[in-house]
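Many introductory courses stop at the sequence. We go one step further.
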Amino acid sequence: MTPPTDATTPTSTPPPTLPPTIRPEVRARIDSMVAVRRDLHCHPELGLRETRTSGVVQDFLRRAGIEFRFPLATTGVAALVRAEKPSGRAILLRADMDGLPLQEENTTDYASQNTGVMHACGHDGHTSILLHTAELTQQRRATLGGDVTFAFQPAEEGPGGALPMIQEGVLENPKIEAAFGLHLWNIFPVGKVGVQAGPAMAAADEFELIVEGKGGHGAHPDKTIDAVVVASHIVTAMQTLVSRNVDPFKTAVITVGTFRAGSNFNIIAERAFLTGTMRTFDPEVRAALIERLEVVVSRTAEAFGAKCKFVFNEVYPVTVNDPGMSEFVADVVAEVVGKENVLRGAMSMGAEDMSYFLEAVPGCFLFLGSNNSARGLDGQHHSPRFDFDEACLPIGTEIFLRIQERYFQRYSAAPAKSL
């Protein structure tokens, strides 16, 4: 495919570190993969605002002769490649498209041109991988064992695009029986792939606090109720919830991400505003911590004579990989990168709304190694210096293609429920 006309032309293709299993058709598209990825990286857009990104996706699909539905979940696109010989089987492959509200600090020629917005989590790579997978799938319809839906999803970073796409029918017509996705993973070097059976990414929840004290002059604290002091004690008390209320053999994270209070050096703040996140894998741990969190927050504020408004929002459920599908994907990945490069037990306290697809149908979400420390491509996700080794793009495309091939070969006679 010809990349978008304003795509940044890659100065070089990825270094020769690709596994020999990458087929020639994939290798022939490396320049296009890199160009599309860099074009998207230059023009990141926030969730539900991916207008240009969605346009790039649609233009690519049109040139490839692939039918698609638009819009889904505001800016989402669902492409469909139908097998020439109908089999009644259908799977879904998914990529997210949105960027983050972050100012990029990289100085590459493909750095973000949109102030305060950046692809700092690899979604530009996900989209490029899925587009080229769709193109190559379209070209092999004659041997395709079933239909494949390609979901280009908005708003993974928030407010969430997977559930709206499902509600608007992305899993219907054709009826999807299994779903697969991948995430570029700068924790692993390029060439390594993580596959985890069962819970792979945590449930993500958000909370907000407004501490109401009594403001006054900094020289007369006895006549005030200092919201900064009260809120600070609340933050400290929260840290004991995981260490003293969660089974040591289980896990959870509670993080206060923002703390805003005060207006001047000599004014005792009347209010403090805090926001944070809670991450869990176990539903019982999640429920218990929600209850304890509210108690600790309210009682701590009360002890200082302050009031506190506490709002808790459940965001994404746990991302759970079907055990049978995970073994299937691990076998496929081993074909591409070698069994020794399949990392079992790969889990993250990060969260993903891919979880909704995997609640609806069995499937697997894998972690595609993408860092290269020797080339300085090892910035962490959500960092202003995040970047990745583009050699992971053809590896991801090859894995997606083989998932299709092996799925329809292996399960052509058995319903998905029996997997």
